[in-house]
Amino acid sequence: MRRIYMDANATTPLLPEVFEAMRPFWIEQFGNASSIHQQGQHARATIDHARESVARLLHCRASEIVFTSGGTESDNLALFGVLNAEAAAHGERPHLITTAIEHHAVLHAAEALAQRGPDRGVEVTFLGCTPQGLIEPDSLRAALRPSTAPRPGTQLVSIMLANNETGVIQPIAELAAIARAHGALFHTDAVQAAGKLPLDLSKTGDLKDVDLLSISGHKMYAPQGTGILFCRRNVRLAPLFFGGSHERQRRPGTENVPGIVALGRAAELAQEWLNPQPGHPSTKSEGLLPFTSGNNPGAPSIAPLSHAMGGATDPLHLAALRDCLETGILDSVEECGVNGAGLPRVCNTTNIYFDHVEAEALVIALDLKGLSVSGGSACQSGATEPSHVLTAMGLSPARARASVRFSLSRLTTGEEIDYALEIIPAAVARLRSLSPTWRRPVEALTQPLPVSALFL
Ligand code: PLP
Questions:
Q1: I need a labelling partner for 227 at 20 to 30 A (CA). Which of 5, 150, 160, 304 fits?
Q2: Region of residue 420 (left: phi > 0; alpha: psi -120 to 50; beta: else)
């Protein structure tokens, strides 16, 4: 059976170019970058090169990049690292402002910081969001203490750039500027934005007021277990671990040379993909597709695109593929809609609720047909909890449990979108025919439905 992968927000495939770049560092080029012999020097030079590549993608200094083991570590290092360093310097009770829609890597770190006990505890404020999933700048303004307050403790704000479930992009430039005006430091979890959106941390860039930014390798076509924390010069960061002086004392431990090489190569490829050069297929007139970040105003006609072969050539192309999928579903399935519609979203993600369907059952039904997608619910203590993100947006538990995330990758093709559109409406209809809350035709109500009908 053919397999189609539409779960890139969970993890992206490793690009062959990335694998080829890292391959020698598993076998013959195995040196430890701290050794002074030739193998060691080679490993050190390779890490330096990868650091430069990442810095070019982010428009920052190479010295501001800390290599980590992934997004979770980067988020934890940002929050604990800043608050530990600042608490040691000031002694005042710090204040962390974050949001109810963050990934658990931030949410649970914030909860742990809040629970550290009365003397070392951090005051934590969780901001809510609008029904579309937007963090309103005024809510941040209201939560920040004025920088003129008597002896204000350190304030750190952590707001994600793009949401992993809905793809909604937050107005980070504005939010970070507000934080800076109040004398607060600003961290953003950019795990779902890196490689999908340009990220400019330079003095004149959109993200000039961002102090710390997290990235995960396996969301940008590098391997699992690799990550990056950008930490702006002059921001004090206490390490989470203790050991050697690697990564400028910010992250001790022998460097993961193959992983770092892969990250560097993935950063170079992301930069090329985000900035296609003249002559690139998508910049030719017949290939130029309108970018629609909302709910498909002016979505391209499906026919020419859906028959295009090969993966998405750039973000506009990927957004057009995503929009084709979204429009196709909305047009062919009743009582469904897009979570986060109407707001800017990253080019690869759509999160759709299918009322009267359990997302988990739909994910399994589609998996059996060869399509990998994911539901937002988490299994906790044996019960399925609706997604905290969708719940924070005000969705009812039933609608949150009926929501499925489709996240395309750069390798997604128009043909795959066609196949998905062939199987999704049928799978939804089948599940609804089994649902006690769905209106079934009168004749069907007289006959019991076999459970096997679920996966036909
Ligand atoms: N932050 C966001 C927004 C994520 O989507 C994820 C992973 O899904 C993480 C952090 C954690 O990253 P990692 O899996 O590299 O630890």
A1: 5
A2: alpha
